[in-house]
Amino acid sequence: MNPKHFLFGMAVAIVLSQHVQAAEVDQENFGSVEERRIENSIIEERANIRKEQENIALREKELKTLEDSVDNKLAEMDKKLEELRQQQKKIEALLAVKTEEEKKRTQELAKIYEKMSPDKAATSLSGLDQKLAADLLASMKVKAAAKILDQISKQKATELSTTFSTLQLE
């Protein structure tokens, strides 16, 4: 007989004998079939509980990953929001400078119109945008504005007066 076959046969015999002994010990531990059935039921429930615990752990890990992702997105959004606020402040500052510059130029232009003869100033104002013309009149001295309005057509003077009296803040 081949020594390899012999060793293999011996190993199989040892394993089988251990299995038979374990089965006998299992049967000795239980007093009845009912106890064995209950023990098997407990073993199955333990396995199910372990499986559920693994599933719960996996879900908790997934939730943690999602939570971290949401936190990162919120932080990113907060950063973008702050950048937008900074941009808004810059735009508001630039707009304030622009508005102030426009006001200054309107006042300078009003001084020029004040120095013109009333009939030439009236002709020039008649061709301007109504709001600009009203702003110019508002920036002039009352006496100069009155002389210019006296030279403008009645309809245009009425329109400018209405615009002048309803100036809106922008």
What can be said about this structure in brief?
With 170 residues, the protein is an all-alpha fold. The protein is 89% helix and 0% strand. It has one domain (42-165).
3D structure, described in words:
The chain starts with a helix and ends in a 5-residue tail after the last helix. It has about 170 residues and is an all-alpha fold. It has one domain. It is built from six helices and no strands.
Total individual domains: 1
Terminal Cα span: 110 Å
Portion in strands: under 5%
Largest sheet, in brief, is: none
Keywords for this structure?
170 residues, mainly alpha, 6 helices, 89% helix
Q: What's the arrangement of secondary structure elements?
A:
Blueprint: H1 3-29, H2 33-115, H3 118-126, H4 130-139, H5 142-151, H6 154-165
Helix pairs in contact: 2-4, 3-5, 4-6
